[in-house]
Amino acid sequence: MALLTLAEGKAQLDYDGDANDAEIQAYIDALTPVIELHTGPVENRTVTETVTGRGPLLALTQVPVVSVTSVTPQLSSGLAVDVSDVVLDPDAGVIRRLDGASWSGGPWTAVYVAGRGGVPPTINLAARMLLQHLWRTQYGAARGGGGADDFNVNEPVIGYGYAIPNRVLHLLEAFKTPPGFA
User: Fold this and answer.
1) CA 151/CA 46 separation, integer angstroms
2) Regarding beta strands 57-59 and 108-114, do their DSSP bridges make them parallel or antiparallel, or are they unpaired?
3) pLDDT at 142
4) S-S: 60 plus which of 93, 95, 152, 175, CB 3.0-4.6 Å?
């Protein structure tokens, strides 16, 4: 799963040829970490991390979470918890034991799938617009990408130079990662 396909990127750039496909694909590939900095994982990926419990809650760091694969203690004194015996809050990345017990015997190794299970249309649009903006910084409006207003260097983008236009940040706002999460 990608934030956008090469065909979608070329359509956004209004580019018909295939001479620059590798370069356009490189731009598309570079969009994912930039967008996920604001939204958390979009593309599904397996994460393995060490976490410690706080009473009845076990907090994962990569949110949102699609599914939990396993939760096992790192110390031999603890017992693995069957994933059918836990409930997941996918947006908060919090695992709660159904029996109400605390997460003792840890630290724990949690294996889970982080991401969104699909690319929401708004994130896809933000990726298209960011691709168009970044492409234009190298080639200008003459080589695809529409009108010249997107390359306005007077557009203030606090903290990000001119790499991420405000219109892209506004689209990503609804998917913003909660504070304290990566």
Assistant:
1) 37
2) unpaired
3) 54
4) 93
Supply the pLDDT for residue 147.
47
Alpha carbons 44 and 65: distance in angstroms, whole number? 9
Percent helix, strand, coil in the chain, to 5, is 35, 20, 45
DSSP secondary structure of 124-157: HHHHHHHHHHHHHHHH-GGGSSS-GGGG-TTS--
Residue with structure tokens 């001119």?
Answer: 162
Is the peptide bond preceding residue 64 cis, with omega within 30 degrees of 0? Answer: yes
Length reported for the chain = 182
**β-strand 108-114 against 45-51: which pairing, if any?**
antiparallel
Query: Which residues does 137 contact at the CB level (< 8 Å), separation at least 6?
Result: 151, 162
Residues 31, 164: Cα–Cα separation, whole Å = 10
pLDDT at 1 over 70: no
Q: Is pTM beyond 0.90 here?
A: no
DSSP state of 81: B
Task: Quote the percentage of the chain above a pLDDT of 90.
Answer: 55
SS3 168: helix
